[in-house]
TrEMBL record:
This is ABC transporter ATP-binding protein. The keyword 4Fe-4S does not apply. Pfam families: ABC_tran. The keyword Metal-binding does not apply. GO terms for cellular component: plasma membrane. GO terms for biological process: response to antibiotic. Residues 279-296 have a biased composition (Low complexity).
Amino acid sequence: MIKTSGLAKTFKGGVEAVRSIDLTVEAGEIVGFLGPNGAGKTTTMRMLTTLLRPTAGTATIAGHDLVTDPQGVRRRIGYVSQGGGVGPSAPVGEEIELHARLYGMGAAEARERVAGTLERLGLTALAGRPGGALSGGQRRRFDLAFGLVHRPSLLFLDEPTTGLDPQSRANLWQHIRRLREEDGLTVFLSTHYLDEADTLADRLVVIDHGTVVAEGTPAELKGGAGTLDDAFLAITGRSLREDGEAAEPGSPPGRPHGEPGVPDGRADEVPAAGRTLTRSGAPGGRAAAAGKRGNR
Ligand SMILES: Nc1ncnc2c1ncn2[C@@H]1O[C@H](COP(=O)(O)OP(=O)(O)OP(=O)(O)O)[C@@H](O)[C@H]1O
Ligand SMILES: [Mg+2]
C-alpha cells in the first residue's frame, strides 16, 4: 500500500528534514510512525500525501506513483493532519459534506455518506455546530470524519490523539480498529504516546534525524525487556531535540510546537490547485546529524 525508496526532503535554506526514508506498508496494516520532535514525521507524511514535493526518492502510494500521479494518490487516501482540518465558524456537518462533494460525490450521495460516517463516529448530534464550539476531542473525531468520508483505502493520521483524555483516546482507537476490520483500511499514524503505539499498531517504524532507525512489531522493538518507552529511549537517545538546531543560519529561533506557519516552507508546498485534503499541520522540532542505530 505504501512503498518508498530514498524519500528525502531538504527545505529551502538547507534544512534536511527527511534524509532518506525506505518504507513498506502492506494493505490492511496499522503502522505506527514514531520519532522525537523534529524527527521528520510530519514532513514525511506531507510528502506521502502529495502536499509537499520530495527532493529525492520515489514512492508508490495505493498503487499510484507519488510524483507522476499525485491525483491518483489523492483519490485513494485520507489525511488527518497534525493541526486538524476543522474550521472555526461553519457547521462541521456542512464542511464535511462539501469535502465529500470535492471528491466527486453528488449531493444526495454526499449527504448519505456524511450521515453514515458521523453516525459511525458518534458525531451526529454535533454536526450542526461550528468547529469553534467543539471540544478538542470532538474536533479530533470530526478530523477523522474528514479523512474518511470519501472512502479512502489508506488513512494517514498525524498525532490523532494528542491532547485527548483517556476515554477519547480509547474511543478513537476503537474506531480505527473497526475501520480496519470492517473496511480493510490501511492506517499509517504518528504518535508520541507509546502505549498507544503498543496497543494499536501491528508494526512500528521509528525515525530520527530524517531516517528510519528501527522497525518491527511492538514486541520485537521491546525485545522482551522493559516498556516501549525504554526501547524508544534506547533507540533514539535521551537528549532533547531543541527547536532551531538544524535551522539555516540566521533563521529565527524555534517556534512553539504546533504553531502554524513556516514562511519559507510555503514555497516548498505543492500549489493549491487540486489540494482537496485537509490543511497541513505545523512542523516542529528540528533535524540534526544523522545516526542510524536500533534493531534493524
Ligand atoms: N517548512 C519548513 N521549512 C524549514 N524547515 C522545516 C519546515 N517544516 C519542517 N521543518 C524542519 O524539518 C524538521 C522535521 O520537522 P517535522 O515537522 O517533520 O518533524 P516531526 O517529526 O513531525 O516533529 P513533531 O513530533 O514535533 O511533530 C524540523 O527540524 C523542522 O524544523
Ligand atoms: Mg509532526
